[in-house]
Design a protein that fits this description.
By secondary structure, the protein is an all-alpha fold. It has a domain at 107-328: MetI-like (MetI-like fold), CATH 1.10.3720. It has 13 helices and no strands. It has helices at 2-29, 44-54, 60-84, 104-139, 144-158, 161-175, 192-229, 232-239, 244-267, 269-273, 276-281, 287-296, 300-328. Helix 4 crosses helix 7 (192-229). The protein is globular.
């Protein structure tokens, strides 16, 4: 397993470099200009100086190599300095947002708690709901519970989150007045009253995202459990007099979780990447909203950095999923 992990880590390096180049070029060559919001009355020489100040006048290759150095070397040094009080970075140039003129990583650090609080909670709730529903639906195939679970999954997966979010706002916020419609990112939990206020403003966006996540994962779980329930080893275990609960939980569930782990692991990067549509609906000042705002004003450093972080997380969680395969199924070896 250690050899496999090291080999995958070495393979990930050229993979991430290629992904970074593709992302940088696609974003850089996309329509739009960093000066699109600057009035046309500004003289050309002033516009040129503005481009030079942002570094946007440099050739693409030069800007790509500088961004790569900043992402993999300079920004980690600043992170170490912030943690341990050192001065390894020595004032080196960071990745600066063209819109806010602030370091992109600092802005991400400010937005990440909101995203993790809402999207992370929704993903955890979605997984906790999906696994029991998928397992029991497969075990009681074609029962009323299976039919209800199938309807729940199809509705949750088919209906887009922007529609679900607006319906929940209309019902629970406008008509019933139970929950607020806008997420207050400045709210600090200092007592029981503020904690209840935090739960209230999280309820609707978490409900929307948890429904979507649970719908997808429950269908994968049901399909995987159904496939394993018909295997010979299950019939053999039952023939030996093993209890039904032990057969399902010890034998069927462990083998069934292998494809489900892939779905869950590949979905985890979305927890860090944010829910773009849902964050826009509920005015959550998270990573998704940050990315949309950067795209609207052609803030290329922010778009490139956030997108590449998402790609790094996907590669990392792919590796984690492969390692979990070997833990869940001892028959899988990577020698």
């Amino acid at each position: 397993m250690l050899t496999f992990t090291l080999r995958r880590l070495l393979t990930a390096i050229p993979t991430l470099l290629l992904i970074s180049l593709v992302i940088f070029l696609l974003v850089d060559l996309a329509p739009g200009s960093p000066l699109s919001d600057v009035p046309l009355t500004v003289p050309p020489e002033v516009r040129q100086k503005m481009l030079e100040a942002m570094g946007a006048d440099q050739p693409v290759l030069v800007r790509y190599l500088l961004w790569l150095k900043q992402f993999f070397w300079i920004e980690p040094l600043y992170g170490i300095d912030a943690l341990f009080g050192t001065d390894f970075a020595q004032g080196a140039q960071r990745i600066i947002s063209w819109q806010s003129k602030m370091p992109v990583m600092d802005t991400i650090g400010e937005r990440l708690p909101q995203t993790l609080t809402v999207v992370g909670t929704a993903y955890l709730i979605g997984v906790l709901i999906a696994l029991p529903i998928g397992i029991y639906s497969a075990y009681r195939q074609y029962s009323w519970f299976d039919q209800a679970g199938t309807f729940f999954a199809m509705a949750g997966f088919s209906v887009p989150t922007f529609f679900t979010g607006n319906i929940l706002i209309l019902i629970f916020a406008v008509n019933l007045g139970w929950f607020p419609t806008i997420y207050d990112t400045n709210l600090e939990v200092v007592d029981w009253a503020s904690f209840k206020q935090m739960l209230a403003q999280m309820a609707l966006p978490v409900m929307v995202l948890a429904l979507f996540n649970a719908a997808e994962i429950s269908r994968y779980t049901r399909s995987s459990v159904l496939e394993n329930l018909g295997q010979d080893y299950v019939r053999t275990a039952r023939a030996k007099g093993m209890g039904e609960g032990k057969v399902v939980l010890k034998h069927v569930l462990r083998n069934s979780l292998i494809p489900v782990v892939t779905v869950i692991a590949l979905g985890l990067p979305t927890v860090f990447g944010g829910a773009i549509v849902t964050e826009q609906i509920f005015k959550i000042n998270g990573i998704g909203a940050m990315l949309i705002g950067a795209i609207n004003v052609s803030d290329l450093p922010t778009v490139q950095t956030v997108t590449f972080i998402f790609a790094v997380l996907i590669v990392m969680f792919n590796l984690i999923a492969d390692i979990l395969y070997g833990i869940l199924d001892p028959r899988i070896r990577y020698d």
